[in-house]
Amino acid sequence: MSGERPERPGEDALIARYFAPLAGEGADGLRDDAASLTPRPGHDLVLTADAIVAGIHYFPDDPAGSIARKALGVNLSDIAAKGAAPRAYLLTLGLAADWTETWLSAFSAGLAEAAAAFGCPLLGGDTVRTAGAAFINVTAIGEVPAGSMVRRRTARVGDRICVSGTIGDAALGLALRLAPEAPWAAALDTETRQHLRDRYLHPRPRLALAPLLRRHASAAMDVSDGLAGDLAKMTGGVGRAEVAIADVPLSAAARQVIADEPALLDTALTGGDDYEILCTVPPAEVEAFAAAAAAAGVPVTAIGTVLGGDGAPLFVTEAGASRSFAAGSYAHF
Amino acid sequence: MSGERPERPGEDALIARYFAPLAGEGADGLRDDAASLTPRPGHDLVLTADAIVAGIHYFPDDPAGSIARKALGVNLSDIAAKGAAPRAYLLTLGLAADWTETWLSAFSAGLAEAAAAFGCPLLGGDTVRTAGAAFINVTAIGEVPAGSMVRRRTARVGDRICVSGTIGDAALGLALRLAPEAPWAAALDTETRQHLRDRYLHPRPRLALAPLLRRHASAAMDVSDGLAGDLAKMTGGVGRAEVAIADVPLSAAARQVIADEPALLDTALTGGDDYEILCTVPPAEVEAFAAAAAAAGVPVTAIGTVLGGDGAPLFVTEAGASRSFAAGSYAHF
């Protein structure tokens, strides 16, 4: 249950070389067994933990820096959706038997770059060997003015449903990766393929929206498991979501793919890994919310309404037909 | 990279069934993507993360409840060593392909029992599949009066070195598990074997010592990677530790094993998984510290002194010979 690996540096040397340079205030250069953290006066901390596992949440041959950025990004996406600003994170890295220093060096460089871009220093963590697939767990810590964390299940009937950015690109990027020779995939130009792959590889937590969610949203979450399934989670017990499919924002790339292969619309609506913000906003606030979001550089689009009643969200076509997605949620599990 | 498992409940159902009942204040029954937490006025939070991996840190056939207790216990041992009281924890559970609901039910029952005993409710986390070995990551959060976290590297020359409880039992319990038919192992009675195995399986975080460490200790850490190696970490850059081997507290079971097989003294001193407190205390404080610890139900023993100079800790035999352990630290990694 233990073993030295004389040919490669031990845990302490790895931490000193690759992770100590990333440490923030309170982390004591990762030379202690714990770190201290205090929210600013009048603020609450917001905590979340998500792991990504090789072969489940990412491809083992994805670039190491991209894997690091994804591990941090998916957690900060949750932080942003709660209206919080990133404060720090703890990292647990499970290294499989075939790890190399080249990989680890690229991983820590990607992590440093992402953490700097997101304004979120490393506070602590652990590095372990695993007999199986590599994994990365991040516990992310954000901060909100006291009592202002935006909840998931607090939408009200009559609220408008809004999403940021575009939906489905990451799921189509994954589909492209899994079936690069499919007719619809082969028809794409290089730039379009690159856009879709980039959206799958590189989640962009919508940190700029956090203060606007606190001001305008009645409920919010990030879209990680697919729009249809996550919308069901947000509105379940509150009301029934009705979405106009034509209003769901799609990128030019996604529109092209779906025009060529209409069945992939379902992939876009249910596929996951969007890491966009899904929120509900009182009707009187929608215009101000959208304008403030646009000013912050993030497009948001109203796609539907929370109606009374219950049941899976209804997706209404331009012809007036209603669809729902019973399975709904993309299951990483 | 995705898959439904219709024959077994999905992640949301698992969380609702096995983990939601463990959720504390701020966790909203684990029905949101993040939790909120605020330290009491005048307090700092103390955060640490450690993972345990099947086949590395525990045996896959260890009782599931014991694995859960270990995952939480090793983290709360760090919290206690920093002088902090447990506040909450986040759990990331990586389930291997062969997981069963029977296992998960026993795991969550053990976790609930340990969390209740340690006064540390569940705040959030993640449940994922892994293509490889199961793993459990815990991020533990404690609380200390502002500015009073006890650091690892703040010992002073002249301080006495103290440890809680007894050293080596867990490492001998592991040795017993790995070689149950060794002559020294076969000579043990059932109760002795049980004691050693229990110390390996069930770390006991020394939470009762936390306030006393804040009052009396100049530096502290928990003994997780072996006394010799952890002492080197604590005193490196400060001075040279000198320990009287005869003063290192051993259980009756450990004394019996070492009497039968003297080479196992080294296992006891370097083997790890003790989860006792190692600390330095100014000489004038040792008596008061030991008395207060005894009153709190935890024996502490002075085993040596921080001398000037540098180098690996010296372990002095009764005959006056000095030994050091160059490799020192038990490497899980």
UniProtKB/TrEMBL annotation, chains A, B:
Secretion signal, residue range per the UniProt entry: none
GO BP term (any one): thiamine biosynthetic process
Residue sites binding Mg(2+) 5 per the record: 225
Positions of Mg(2+) 1 binding: 50, 126
Catalysed reactions, semicolon-separated: thiamine phosphate + ATP = thiamine diphosphate + ADP
Domain PurM-like N-terminal intervals: 32-144
Enzyme kind, highest EC tier: transferase
Function summary: Catalyzes the ATP-dependent phosphorylation of thiamine-monophosphate (TMP) to form thiamine-pyrophosphate (TPP), the active form of vitamin B1.
Protein name as it appears in the record: Thiamine-monophosphate kinase
Origin species: Methylobacterium oxalidis
Gene: thiL
